[in-house]
Design brief:
It is built from two helices and no strands. By secondary structure, the chain is mainly alpha-helical.
Length: 57
């Protein structure tokens, strides 16, 4: 998912360079949404991993 966020970020930068403002804004928005979803999933798995580690030890 983080790869997709980086891909949309690159697309946004390239579209911005060539002057496609609408495409640039849309792909930047998608990249931002995917990045925050990735952060939320990371935090959830981090908490689950800590809880599982405490259950083992």
């Amino acid at each position: 998912m983080l790869k997709l966020a980086l891909l949309f970020l690159v697309i946004s930068i390239i579209a911005g360079i060539f002057g496609f403002g609408g495409v640039s804004a849309a792909s930047a928005g998608i990249a931002k949404i995917l990045f925050f979803i990735c952060i939320v999933v990371f935090v959830i798995f981090l908490v689950l991993g800590v809880m599982a580690g405490k259950a083992i030890f």
